[in-house]
Structure formats: C-alpha cells, structure tokens
Amino acid sequence: MTKMTRRVGLEGSFAVAEAVRMANADVIAAYPITPQTHIVERLAEMIADGELDAEFICVESEHSAMSACVGASAAGARVFTCSAGQGLELMHEVLYIPSSMRLPVVAVAANRALSAPLSIWCDHSDAMSIRDIGWIQMFAENNQQAFDLTVCAFRVAESVLFPAMVHIDGFFLSHVIEDIELPDDDAVRDFIPDYEHPFVLDPDKPVSMGCFAPPFIYAETKKAQEVAFEHTKSELMSVWADFGRTFGRHYSPVEPYKMEDARIALLTMGSYSETAMLAVDEMREEGADVGLLRLRLWRPFPFAELRDAVKNVELVVVLDRAVSFGMGGPVCSEVRAALYQMENKPHVIGFIGGLGGRDIPIAGFKYMVKRAQERVKDKKEEMEETELFGVRE
Amino acid sequence: MAEEKEEDLFIPRLVTTDEYFASGHRACMGCGEALAVRLVCKALGKNVIIVIATGCMEVVSSQLPWTSWRVPWIHTIFENVGAVVSGIESAYKARIRKGRIAPKEVKFVGFAGDGGTSDIGLQALSGAMERGHDFLYVCFDNEAYMNTGIQRSSATPYGAWTTTAPVGEKQPLGQMTWKKNMPEIAVAHRIPYVATACPSYPLDLMDKVRRGVDIEGPAYIHVLSPCPTGWRMPPNLTIEVGRLAVETGVFPLYEVIDGEYRLSLELPELKPVREYTKKQGRFRHLSDDAIERIQARVEADYARLKSKAGL
Hints:
By secondary structure, chain A is α/β, with parallel strands linked by helices. Chain A is built from 12 helices and 16 strands.
C-alpha cells in the first residue's frame, strides 16, 4: 500500500474505462447498447485525447464486436469489449470461440433484461443465458469492484489463456457515481505485465487455428478445455491474493458478510448485495442469526467455497434476477445442485426479484428471509414454489 | 475469343511452384474452388494471414489433427470473416505502432463461399469494407450451399436446381430469383478495388489477387468456382464450364479500380447461354422460354457493364 492512489467520484462505466486504459489495451471492438454506452464513449474519448493508444473498431454489431476481438486476440493483442442484454445475445454464438481457442479476451457486461417486452433496465437474464460459454465470470457489487475486477480480469485471462468477463449491473453500477480509489497507472501496469500469447497468427511461424473436429477427437478437445478451465479458479484466487497485497482490497469466490454464527444465509450477486447487507444489519439488530454470502465468482463455480461457507447454516435464501422458465431461478438451482452432496445440507429457498430494473428495498430482503423460514416450516421447498418477489398480482 | 488464344494464356512456367494450400485435402474431384484457393494462395505468397468462413474449403482442409495450410490461418464461425479480419488487421496496426512487435509487411485476407459472403456474412463484410480496413476479401462462389448438400443461396442463378429450390410440377424452374450481384454491392461501398475472376483464367485470377492485396484499403474479388458435385456435371468439365460462364457473358470478368470499370476480356460476341447451361445437370429441366429469359437478362446486364466500362 505504498503506491500512489487518488479518490475520485466515478460512475461504474468510467471506472471500467479507467481500468482498460491502465491495462493499456491494444484493440477495443464494441457496438453501442444501453446501458453499456458510457464505457465505449469514455474509451473512444480516451483514444481521441491520446490517453490510450489503441485501435477502436466501431463494428456494425455485437456479433462482429466479439469476432473482431477474437481476431485481434489471435494476433496477439490485448483486447476488450463490452455489451449488455440483447447485445450479449447477438454475441452469443461467438462467445464460445475465445474460450475454446484459448484467447484471453476481456469483456464487461452491463447487465440488462432481455426482450420481450423491451427493457433497457437491469437484471441478470443476459448473464444467465451465457453461463456455459467457458469464460471466467465475476460479479461486481459496486464501482470500486467494477474497476478492481476488470484489472484482475486482464491479469488472470492472460495468465490462464481463457477469456474473462466482469458483470456490472446496468444503471445500478454503470450510471451511478460512487467514490472510488484509483491506483496509480504504473501500479496497474506493473500488476498486468505485457504478455505474449504462445501461438499468434504470424507469417514467421504459421499455425492453423480453429480446425474442425470429427467425433473421434471432439470430445478430447472439450476434456482438455474443461481440465484447463477448472484450473482457472486457483489462478484467479492467486491473482486476487496478489491484488490484495498490492492494492489492499481483497476478493474471494464467495464473500461472507456477518456470517460468523449465522444460521440463515442470504445469497446474492451484483449490486443488490449492498442492499442485502443493510437488511442483514437491521435483522441482526432485531436479533436474527442472518448473514450474507455474495457470489463473486460465477464461473468456474466455487463449489468447495460455497459448501464451506454454508456448513453451519440451516437455511440459504437465494435471490435470482432472472427466470429460467419452467425451472425457477437459475442461481438457486445451481446452489441446490452444489450443496446436494453435503451430508447436513441446508434448506435452499429461492426468490426471483429485481427483474427489468424493479427495485428491491431493504424490507424486501427481510421479507424474503421471513417468508423462506415460513416455507421451510410448511415444507414447501419445491422448485415450483419459487416466488417472484414484489409482483403485482 | 478463340480457343487457341485462351490456351496461350496458360503459361505454367510463370507460376510459382511454391504451394501454400497443400495437396492431400478432401475436396471433391474436379473442385473449381480448391483450384481457385490454390491459385490465390500462390499469388498471395507467404506473408499473409488468412481468415476463412465455415464452408467447403474450411472442412476439406482442416480436419484435426491435420491442416493443409502452410500460412497462418484461422477459422471461427460462418458469418464473421469480415469482422475477424478487421480484428487481426487492427491488432497488427496497434502492436506495431506501440512497439510491441517489429514492423512487418503482412497481408490480411478473408476467404468465404457465396453463402458466407452474400447471405450470412454480408453484414460483417459490409462493416469491414465501410470501416476501410486494409484487407483483401475473396468470395469463392460455387452458387449454392455445397458443403451442406446443394441448398440454394442468394448467389444461386435463376433456373438452377438445388435441394431447396427443387424442380417440381408446381415449380418447374428450380431457383426462381436472380443471382444477387455481390461485386456491385462491394462497388457501392466505394472501396478502391473490386474484381471478378475465375480459375479457368488462372493468370488473370492471380494478377487480380496481387493487385487487390497491393492496394491500400479494402479489396474484393468474386471468384466463380465451378462445382461438379453441385452443378451436376462431370469433374473434367470444371475448367471448360468456367470458360463458358465467361464467354457467354453469364459471369463477365472485370475490375473496378477506384470506381473505374475495366473489362478483363474483350468479347466481341457472346456465346449463347445454352452452351453454358447444357453442360450442367442443374439446368437440365429448363424450358426454351426460361433459357430465353436468361439469355435476355445476360445480354442486358452485359450491355450495362460495357457501358460502365465506356464501351
């Protein structure tokens, strides 16, 4: 903590842009979509003002944004893109490519609901539809984390040769100004060293990338990918440890809040974690044994860390910001699956809320905890009992 | 143009013996597209990075763990060649400018079929041309989705049979729409170089490739690539049918350099379209009426092209 730092008021989008600038990205390819636009606008401005030396490819679609990132990364560049909602959906097909071809593309998603009906506001439907793309995926809960996790994304992606994505809640983080601490440029550049991809597209050393695989070899390529991807968790944790030593802010896959002696755990991802913390404070004052678990790392899924975090807990109350139609909340079902092997597993009750930018007040989290306890008492734990919070009937 | 003169055009000793698209790939016998790729690669040389779309040439050349490519080559998905090549070109620009790598002359080239170009890949290509990246794009047009089994594309000619434009009692024509004019779409982007070519005219094809990559900015070459499998003809007719496409005016060879049209061959008189269609099973069902409609369209299009070239 001897490095120079400065405290500034920045919206989440500008915090991300600062991280990309300090990371000295070579190529940025992006297509504008609300609520991601401030990130690309700020980056374009930085390039125009000479604060960042990069090629900005103003592509004609998100599909081409990710495709250009793939090409640039295959040619050895440090690349960045960002998108949201429909944009991530249009990008979807291409998102599998950098993870399968081991290209360390870094992206930020300013999470947004999916059409129809059209909604530019935040939920996690877009994030949930890209669970299986093979990217390292993290969720930020405030603008400081938006900055920190983007910095860490570059470092971990390049060290494990997998793409990494940071999710920031659209508007809640992307457009809200918060007081954050920006480290010195040099400190970030030291933290993310220059990298050389071992196999780049270069006429001096020709390689064929993206060959096709018939049945006799496809499965082997997928196993190799899965084995390598599992390893990314330990590497990310060591990057976070180094980040903590260097910048004094510490991250881990499952971050507890007031979990000592807690018998009930709320579980959230993204910006509602901060509202949930306030709810936990109030419930603690009222005498409830409630804590909060914030899922920082979404992929690879932190099975061991989650099981360890709930080993003394009787009830986990999961907030989803997306619907898996006919299935309930996707995070809730993954948490249930992760805990299934535990001998003394807690009850897991899911709620869906905050869809399309709908607010969840502190009282909402208190309601969920109370309601979950009632449902355990009534033995109503089935998937179909997933409750949509705050919906007018 | 007389047959003898055409033969004279083919002077093998002027062509490099270096091969960058290696033999042993899995293309069909008589594949005009594989021949065109081979010739294009000879003209490009080794200082090149090739981006290819999903399609015949990708599938025949890159089955793991083998590759036919002796130059750096990347395939990702079907419809994004224009975008991937944009990314590679930008990466080189940025990395050289920032001193990350030593300056070097690299040509950036995209390959795709007619489906990957005029249908599903049109948006990405249009974006790349509009943004002005320094690249050459070569469309190898065999006039249908041959890799998936001869389904019609927007480049399939009027009256051709395909599996999704079949010939039936109620639909005796096969393809009922006229071929999309992809080179004109490229011209409309006001890029510095657009050309058409055909492997039946190998030196012309290679000259155009060299001109296309040497020009700064986007260049587009549309290569008619006869496909014995999909055109329903014997594999030994590939070259001949390619020539007939040109000599009948069905597929004229021309260049558009900075907006100026130039015909590559002087054809004082077009051969009848029937000489081209009768060699191919895909046109076997056509009535005299239908062939006359094609003849009239070809003549009108050719006259329009000639007037653009000031002839």
